Amino acid sequence: MESVALDNSQVTGSQRATPDADRAVASRTHGFDNARLRKDFADQGAFLYLDDFLAPEVTAQLVASARGLLDEVNRNYLPGHKQGGSVSRHTIDRLAPFIAELYRSKELIGWLEQLSGDQLMVSPADDPHAYALYYYTRPGDHIGWHYDTSYYDGRRYTLLLGVIDESTCRLDYELHTRDDSKPDLPGSVQIPPGGLVFFDGDKLRHRISPMGENEMRVSLTFEYVTDSNMRPWKRFISNMKDAIAYFGFRQVFRQLMRRSGDAA
Ligand SMILES: [Fe+2]
Q1: Where are the residues of the annotated region Disordered (predicted)?
Q2: 215-242 pLDDT tens trace
Q3: N or C, which end of the chain is more exposed by having fewer CB within 10 Å?
Q4: Is residue 13 part of a domain?
């Protein structure tokens, strides 16, 4: 039987009024010293961390959605590299559409464009990383050192938003690893609910450290690109990686079958 799409209030069991994503983002970003933030982003090799970014009503909405989607988490395990869970955009579209609205917020994208100096676009409809929730719910959940490599023809930016953090997990990172003119610069942050990390996926080497006992952490990531074209062989690698490491074959290839069905 097909599941029925629910709105946020039904998922969370509350009568919470869904915030207006554009207005909520603007209420924060218009008060920032954006020239300074843009300089910080550039100086740090296309990386920025803010411990307090989201408007409180947005954070509250994300926390409620993250808890409401716990039964939808797809667990994955790659020995030596990652262990954790995720909820893909396809599930988010059905059950937490506010997250999709926030992802597409013109205010948010415009502000990220100011920071990066790039014209950004949302990821194509078949990219499960466009927006996804990542769940760390069991001891040892983590992701090892990696880059958010772009398989697109252009750059791929990651926006990471803290949602729930009842954990000792940290985002460890190294700046400037792909810039020979600067020494590598290590850093580490614990991202509180409403906090933000924004970076160029090919430039920031990073990991999430393993979680301890009786802890929980949920983060939301948004992916934006500068060119949505992808060469077929890169698409194949990207799809296989997603199927194995993140979202499961059923979820990734269901989308692909739909696409090829449309094209036939
Ligand atoms: Fe990453």
Answers
A1: 1-25
A2: 999 999 999 999 989 888 888 888 888 7
A3: N
A4: no
